[in-house]
Fold this protein.
Amino acid sequence: MSEVQQQDVEFSTGRRIEHLPDDVQGWLDKTLAPGEMMSTLLFSDIMPSGEFGERWAFLTNRRLLVLSPNGREGDADVEFEIPLGEIEDAEVRQYVGSSALIVTGADEGYEVARFSLGSHQEASDMVHCLKEIVREHKAGMPIEKVPPPPPRGPEHRCSKCGRALSRWSETCPYCIDRRQILRRLFSYLMPHKWFALLGLSLTLSITAMQLVPTFLNKLFIDNVVMEGDAALLPLLVVILISVHVGSSTLSMFRSYVMAWLGNRVLLDLRIKVYDHLQLLRLSYYSRRQTGRIMSRVTGDLSRLQYFIAEGFQEILINLATMVLIAVILLAMNPWLFLLALAPTPIIAISTWIFGRRIHLIYHRLWRRWAGLSAILADTIPGIRVVKSFAQERREVDRFSAYSSEVFTQELQAAKLYSGFFPFVSLMTALGSILIFAVGGYMVVRGATTPGTLIAFIGYLWRFYMPVQQFGRMNHRIQHCVTSAERVFEILDSDPEPLNRTDGVLLDPVRGKVEFRDVRFSYEPGKYALDGVSFVVEPGEMIGLVGPSGAGKSTLVHLITRFYDVDEGKILIDDHDIQDLNLRPFRESIGVVLQEPYLFHGSVWANIAYADPDAAPDRIIEAARAANAHDFILALPDGYDTVIGERGQTLSGGERQRISIARAVLRDPQILILDEATASVDTETEVQIQTAIERLVQGRTTFAIAHRLSTLRKAHRLIVLERGKLIEIGTHEELIETGGLYSRLCKLQSELSQMRVW
Amino acid sequence: MSDEAIQSEDLAPEAEEDSEAEVPSVSHGHVEPERMRVWEDPMRRLCISVDGQEHVNLRPRRVFPLSSKADYISFLNEKGKEVALLTNPRKLDKESHKALEEALGRMYYVAKITRVDSINENWGVSHWEVETDRGYAAFEVTDRSSIRNLGRGRMVVADADGNRFEIEDLSQLDERSQALVFGET
């Protein structure tokens, strides 16, 4: 039983079944008839009773069967079987938290297997094969061999070890070198290695200098005070003065060098992270809250500043100091030194425990902070909604609830701190007192000089300091390593291949777009587009119609290659979109969105966003084409008017026309209009409509619109419903067919009549 | 006539290819349990009848599966349109209630965590090993937002594949489990 469970664990963590486990292969060998071949298999981890357990469903060239272990070694029962000829239909029924494979015969349905969602892909493959078989069977073809499963979409697991990948990272941290994180941090220091070395040598010299006065103390007591050597005194004073002056001067330099280094490295890294964020796939953003991404760019990075500039050096310096002092102390008195070491293990161990616990708390604390900034990023832009529903009180309550969580966690951290550091101080104090007592006795007995004892105790304090420092540093480093993890997660996330130049360069892009059996899903198992195929000729205008959620926006996102298809192909001018150089291809696409996003800046800069060096005449021309020129001139500063963070000083229609001008200026070969006229009044719509009509001339255009009247200029219409292309053709053809499109048209003309009344 | 009425009438497909039943395009709306019967047919499809009118191949959906604000069950047809909204499933006749419970049990497969053995977090992915009412399970959580705190100690955790695990009341678990889960929230 335990063996079965063990296996269960492996599969429920989703390891891909490359090779069938030996015992399962054994069952299969026993069960299959001669000449019977296995095609696809499905691991089911839920028993009919609903408990977790092991089941295997196999599709062979004769039947569909389910095997379950019966407890006897190497043996299994056939729990269910159905000959292929009796199968009428098959489906994967997707539930919440599990799925089931349902097969129906002539007059009965069977739940063949239930499984958690990790096996969903295998089940879909099996259904795909089953449907193929049924189709062939019904067509009168004999069932000889089973069709191969369809190609698979991308996995959310590491291909090497099968572990789930973090949502935002597509590299498996287990399959890369773990020490790499430190090495990587260090690598950001390398471009400035001379500065780093300068800082390091300054710090080391200062540390060495600071050890001198304690030794002079010994000379002072033993030689000047005890033996009355007055001639030595001026020399000691001169040395002391020069040591202090020297170390102060060097400290001054050091501080500046370190500050420069920290900020410089941080600057590089910050730019690098931002650069990478810009390159990341859209899916990265759709999965996370803006606030959390922002906190990585600001908070986590500043935490790294300390680590990169100071952290590495501090470790080295503390080590050096410890070794140096240990040598001095050993030379002075080996027995006293051994005694002095007594508290060190206690300090070291408690530091280690403390480090682990504080790390946990810091992790949680970081999450609370991120949550807090996520609330800000959520409610501040949504302030109008909050106000119009008078929910200020509730938002404040929500915020204060999170804030108090932060408070609680900070207190937790404080509790650990306030206990730990006094404890360590006490330990070190006890160590010195021990030396004080034993050493004092030795001085009285004449075994050592008073000066040596004083110097010894002085050095001892300095010896304990780095030990404590390590404790303090431990949590700081932990803190930074967690931050580094998060920053590197961003840097490791797979960017879009924007900079790739080895692909096909279409120059110019003609604008032929072809979909070949395209499937795409945002979440595994739920197809947003399901087997869509069509060909659009250059210059053709296509209207995309269908209820919301039908996949219209997904379709245009695939054309812009914001996402990559799971199955099938998209061809641009007969080349696979994946083989194209992405940047030049994107540059040939113009997009006008329903909610145009205008950046903070002048009207002029917004229109020329894609081409800041555009000549003024071209900008004006584009604005004219977009019916925007006149209203722009009516603005107080004309084309230089600054429009707010989200262009708030302009109306929706005006903003839309600026975004159209932006697209016109770009002169794209492929144009995408995503509900461009949905949020404006009728009069403005007419103006936008004429602008759009000018814009679409000679360009391949995909226009999404709910208001079908906006699509009257479209050459053909594509009607989508629940991810499937259900109708394609001209307006007249589709009206003729009397499908969904004609119904929508009828409905809308009724609605528009109502509006007139 | 309101816009809504027009839409729901017109958007429902007129020419149904399924000859199964004369599917009415409008939902029955709120239905009291006395008017409804629920059963599963031999084809493994959930069926209901409301005031004698039959509907085949439905998907049951809890309206508030997590917050349990009201114990409503919605029945959706293949097109994802609601056919009826049952208001008090407990009051159904015994057979119907049993059939519905079974269907719901299948629809919402959520193992209840009874003990947490370990949670190890590395690189943004946490590995959970737990004991549930359906047996031992090990799973991976890849996103903080997959752990939902529903208040009063109730939590729902979704793993990397979308499988769900529920903690009915965190305060009822043993202390070690509580501490482990607490570290993740």
About this structure: Chain B touches chain A through 46 residues (CB under 8 Å). The first helix of chain B runs from residue 3 to 11.
